[in-house]
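Worked problem 6 (solution included).
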Amino acid sequence: MSNTIDKAWEFFFEGKVLEAKQLLEKEYQVETCLDYAGLNLFAYLYLEEENFDKALLACQRYVQLARKEQNAEQEHIGLHQLAMVYRSQGNFKKALELIEEEATLLATDFSEDKLKWSVNDYEQGYLRLQLGELDSALHFMKRSLENALMTDDLIAQACAYRGLGEIYATSRITDLAEQAFLQSITAFEEADDDIGVEEVRELMTTYRII
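Solution. The predicted structure is:
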């Protein structure tokens, strides 16, 4: 990774989106970039602008580069990021297709990686929730939590609990929703993620689970 991309990421994490984009575009164009970190940053920068066409291009190039190099690790990341862009557009069906494609790759190359499975299962559950498929959403979100609990990753655990809370709340199973949301808050607090805590509290208010 170049110093330019390193510095641009620093700007991005500091909330200096414009500075990050200006610095990155001095040296790279999304159409020709052959650096995973650079393409990933382009995707996030374009999402910030809601420039979905350019964000899709960045992620598509990421996946193409990974396939050309036969790099399964980067390919699964690229598929996940590509799904994120479609999800941001509200195209949940296309996003789910990509997440399922990622799951096939995980089964082949990363079958024992509990964290990767937890993240993939979370997306499978969340996207099915958005598509109104509550039973299968619950199945995948429970599996996400099971996998997350086999890791030390508090954020993965917190996200899975939050997802369960949303599914239960949508299904109007209020007691289980409250329990899951509170467990999510506890995990986010343990991870010192104040933004995560606040997002769950907002969800509880939205679903009127207080």
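Discussion: The chain has a mean pLDDT of 97.
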